[in-house]
Amino acid sequence: MRILKLLVLLTLMSSAVYSQTIDSESARKIREIRKAIAVATDDCDKASRHWTIAQFYRQNQMFKEAIDDYLSTIKYATGKTCVDADEEEFEEEDEVEGFPFVRMAQDHIAESYVALKDWPRAITWFGKVIALNPHSDYYHQRGHAYLSNDNLPLAIQDFTTAIEKRSASHLYTDRGYVYWKQKEYDLSIADNTKAIELDPKSARGYYMRAVNRYQHDKKPDLALAIADLSKAIEINPKHADALADRGWLYMRQGRNDLALPDLNASIVLAPAGINSLYNRGVVYFNTSDWERALADFTKTIELNHSHADALRGRGEVYLKLNKPEAALADLNKSLEINPAGFNLRNASHFRGVALSMLGRYPEAEIDLSKAIRLGYEFPNGYYSRGVVYFRMSKFDLAIADFEKAVALGAKPETVATYKARIFFVQDKFVQALAEVNSALKTESSTENFELRASIYCSTGKKLLAKADERKVAALGGTVSQPCQ
After folding, report:
1. pTM tops 0.90, yes or no
2. Is the pLDDT of residue 169 over 50?
3. Which residues lie below 8 Å from residue 40, measured CB to CB, with a gap of 6+?
4. Residue 251 near residue 259 (C-beta atoms within 8 A)
């Protein structure tokens, strides 16, 4: 019963708009009751009638009005032996038979302040209730008020007292949640483990233990986190957060085939779930499904215009779709919103690529160099800057970047065409021929055959040059300068 009462209270806490009027019949009854109060001589009778009015207001979510009548209830009931005739409101576990009006009114005042999100007053009134009846549930409720007021140490203190008075699964998950907010992951894991022991069907316990396991600053364990999320989903197949998190973890592991169903299910359950939409866009990007990635990133941006990651992701998609101007606009916006950390590094890189595609090489060099300086130590980082250096005729710098890209894992043939062109311009025909042959192993393009024809022609191998020129023609190309 008390747990149900707390759930109702938390629902009221989440409500953003409260009714400001009551129905005409209730209003009529209130007027009649106030007339009766005006002529009443018995304080307990007055307390009871003020209580009735307060309940009308409370049921209509007019909490400020309700508080006034609860205060009047306390005023007239204090020091008396007044009890309410209708004990449906109360619990069998209450320590005093009949539950005096004072405690009842104090309890409802505290709950009303919770509904109004006036945490300091809620805390004060729960303190008054606890002074009269130090029940576990009142410590629990005050702990929530402290939590909502960002006083985490006192929230833990009250949750601990509640646990000492009554061991219950939900109390451990609540204290574990506060430990998680404080980044005390081991303590949170211990509390959620205890919650699971007390209630093996605690989906929340499994979920929160999973969150601690993958966020742990010293020993993150994605495998155990996924196992816990799977258990939470088994208990509650409609657990949107668990599905979203498991999909995200699968994505991080590169298991896109497993990530996609979880993210799809999460989005069905919570269509406005921005994280799942964004992460599904990443999965689509990782699987080269550009149009679906574009749609998800765009939807994410519509829901949150300041989502720097989605803007960066859509910018990357536009690059794949050969739309550098659209990419540049998104990447500029992303960097404007979040010019720091991971986003600064990655968005700078991709903006550099967009600028390069638009022929704005000096600006591209600045962005690509910044990304590398910030830790973009990936093959694509050096490859992209190498291309810019090539376009700017900074050949030695280009060669150095291409070689760095290969050292970091790029396949030699991916940079071979550029290196071949550089060596050709520098009259290093042996090196140029070796590089273009490497490029032709993976890309039998007209560009590579024409380049090799030029190398052969420059070294007097005209028959070989003509043979490559015929290959260019066979592929539908035209040789710009046939060998003479």
Report:
1. no
2. yes
3. 46, 49
4. yes
